[in-house]
Amino acid sequence: MTSTALLESLRQIVGAPHVLTDGDLSAYEQDWRKRVHGKSLAVVRPGNTAEVAGVIKACAAAGVQIVPQGGNTGLSVGSTPDDSGRQIVLSLTRLNAVRHIDKDNLTFTVEAGCILQNLQELADQQGLLFPLSLAAEGSCTIGGNLGTNAGGTQVVRYGNTRDLCLGLEVVTPQGEIWDGLKGLRKDNTGYDLRDLFIGSEGTLGIITAATMKLFPQPAAQLTAFAAVPSMEAAVRLLGLAHQHLGAGLTGFEVMGQFALSLVVKHMPQLRVPFTEKEADMGDEAPYCVLLENSDSESEQHARLRFEHLLELAFEDGCVVNAVVAESLTQAHDLWHIRESIPLAQAEEGLNIKHDISVAASRIPAFVEHADAVLKREIPGVRLVNFGHLGDGNLHYNVQVPEGEDGKAFLRDKEALVNHLVYEAVDAFGGSFSAEHGVGALKTDKLEKYQSPVALQMMRAIKNALDPQGIMNPGVVLARG
Amino acid sequence: MTSTALLESLRQIVGAPHVLTDGDLSAYEQDWRKRVHGKSLAVVRPGNTAEVAGVIKACAAAGVQIVPQGGNTGLSVGSTPDDSGRQIVLSLTRLNAVRHIDKDNLTFTVEAGCILQNLQELADQQGLLFPLSLAAEGSCTIGGNLGTNAGGTQVVRYGNTRDLCLGLEVVTPQGEIWDGLKGLRKDNTGYDLRDLFIGSEGTLGIITAATMKLFPQPAAQLTAFAAVPSMEAAVRLLGLAHQHLGAGLTGFEVMGQFALSLVVKHMPQLRVPFTEKEADMGDEAPYCVLLENSDSESEQHARLRFEHLLELAFEDGCVVNAVVAESLTQAHDLWHIRESIPLAQAEEGLNIKHDISVAASRIPAFVEHADAVLKREIPGVRLVNFGHLGDGNLHYNVQVPEGEDGKAFLRDKEALVNHLVYEAVDAFGGSFSAEHGVGALKTDKLEKYQSPVALQMMRAIKNALDPQGIMNPGVVLARG
Lengths: 480, 480
What we know:
Chains A, B: This is FAD-binding oxidoreductase. Chains A, B: Keywords: FAD, Flavoprotein. Two copies of one chain form a homodimer. By secondary structure, the first copy, chain A, is α+β, with helices and mostly antiparallel strands. The first copy, chain A, folds into three domains: about 5-90, Uridine Diphospho-n-acetylenolpyruvylglucosamine Reductase, domain 2 (2-Layer Sandwich); about 100-215, Uridine Diphospho-n-acetylenolpyruvylglucosamine Reductase, domain 3; about 220-425, Alpha-Beta Plaits (2-Layer Sandwich), CATH 3.30.70. In chain A, about 40% of the residues lie in helices and about 20% in strands. The first copy, chain A, is built from 16 helices and 19 strands. Chain A has helices at about 5-15, 25-30, 50-60, 115-125, 140-150, 155-160, 195, 230-245, 255-265, 280-285, 300-315, 330-350, 365-375, 405-425, 445-450, 450-465, and strands at about 20, 40-45, 65-70, 90, 100, 105-110, 130, 165-170, 175-180, 205-215, 215, 220-230, 250-255, 285-295, 320-325, 350, 355, 380-390, 395-400. In chain A, the strands form four sheets. In chain A, strands 12, 13, 14, 15, 16, 17, 18 and 19 form an eight-stranded antiparallel β-sheet that branches. In chain A, helix 8 (about 230-245) crosses helix 11 and helix 13 (about 365-375) packs antiparallel against helix 14 (about 405-425). The longest helix of chain A has 22 residues, at about 405-425.
């Protein structure tokens, strides 16, 4: 089939206005961080699952490769076409219906293109909670969250996207529709296809809808900000918080003082506790921790529990100073500090990002080791260390040394920085990609650090489900 | 390779005393409910992962099929050899080391042959909780729990076995060892092989070890027993309990009055509330619910929360009577009622068991429909309905009509009963196997009720990972 014939066929399936070939398609053809610019044959925007199936059948018949795309906010270049002009970008954003809300089952069934924040708000209107929450929530889609098994800030309590999903609807690389949307909490009838598709980054098929878990809204949510004397102390505080807040612990973020100092410098309107005002606190407390306590009872009860925890933490010595937000505004402001770190980093200049995980118990030794290696090998290096300590997930980022030219530093040192960080992660039994996935950006890291036996099984599964190799080639697994 | 040569080779790998060919091997060769009696070439009991790999390599070279086995307590005939005398039973019970306890990471890494109850006790000794709990816990193994994705009584809070696992060690059908035991809470580096092996019932490879989640022990645990006026009311109570106990809700079991009457009849030493004493309660309250509330604070607090919930439930009308256990002994006694139902059923005579799930919201309509169909089609049928309502999972069992010959009834009606129940389940979008798996017992049900598209993908995965077809053939997927 010629390209022209395929495009004509796609126009018949989804309607001519939804096959984009002209004009500025950069929103679809380049990745979120603008590292990779591709060129597609067309951007195709089906409006329902049957149309997705039709598009895939047509592409499979033509031997044309497909790059599925949601909000295109991924950080690992998993939804960008190559520059051949021969791949189809399959945008799922028009599949944005909420098919069913089942309050008694605590689930809703939503289409892949639904924006995460819209789903949070919808749950809220129903008096329920959809707990998935992450920086891109205003523009990312639930399909993308599922495709990458996104994490975020509430994983310590509610798990990753995988843990929030009870069922999927998927279009296979052959254009067949699998309806796995029963919404059951227990169903042991064969292999777990659901979890195989979740996190497969569109390489095994296309998620078109999902049944997701909802939760009762907490009666109250409180936020605390604590200065801790060491990373060991932060891990001890995590243990105390698990013990005394139980499942009430819904957030546990750590931030190094250098990361906080960038917020102070570039967002002077934000009041950051335990840094500027108490100028020497940085030495006494190299890290701060943000804790969130969700309570099914009342704000008063949440406050008592928090005070009890912090008393124990002071006695233990794992906290040297702490503040509990007195109002929702204060709580919002504290979270805003944490969420502003990436922007403050960007304001400061170029930097190298990592998204790594290590068992929480090994985080202190890992950080000590990695800090020492980087400082030794790269004089003047500045470490922006923050992240979801409750999940053992750090955004262990590296800022260009003060006064150095950013582009030159990245050109000369980015590969070395990555090598040093990932070798350290590997030595401590960690992962080079905790929540951002592999994409096309890290397939070499997968080859290097994933178990060869696991890789062999992954390739066998890819070949079994997508023997033509048309689904998002070069993502997760390197091109053969 | 001849059988003799293979046996000699196996003796060299695991030691002659661990290759069993003589004597009474029925503990290995028949299933738990003694429905199927097989005959193996040998029962092989390797002592470590390397020996498991050696055994599989030898069997693969000889083209001999392998039936992996843990405690052999499964209910779906998933670990029984056929009667050919040519299959190897690979018993994992000698792999019973606890490799590592990581209190700060809230995990332990344990070998497949560890008995579940031993792991619960070990966690307890560490001041932690391993929440997986089910009837066979005194003899089932964690490897079997993982292979079947076992459920149990705490799923409403902690999930199925799948949800408790952070990593696996697996020996592939080629005898390669995959070490996936990092114990990370976030790791998005390729396809989710862990969840593919969990629930695959030994048909894709052999789980030899796992890193499992641990939790803080609750400060207090309280149990309540409530009489409810209908199944709708039970579901309303579930919603209230989610809302007001939050993650404190760790158990929510429903029991029909006929199920309870069998306990009263056959276990007269047990005091069952809301049945015998108040003789008319059965009409007013056709079901009772057992609730468990785990509190991270104190017993006093747990009691206040429970009382608050029950007040609301009385006001709502979804509870007509309730008792909260005053002591651990009382709580134990209430649970003992629930746990005695299967034994009381056996005392009453032969019966037909089901392990089905439906979305909680649809349970009332499902039960009304299925009850009506069964009563219409099979005069005198007695329905023993109980189970994990918090997960939408009912053991919707059928007792032989009073006075009828059990064996004759099963011979004449078992297929019809199963047909009627599974058709009803299917009509309500449910699952014919919620927590017991498929085994060799229900492969025909899988063919009938699983999506053909899903089945095709499952077969492709099986062929990709086990092209020789030597791993537990005829389990999950019917023999080709």
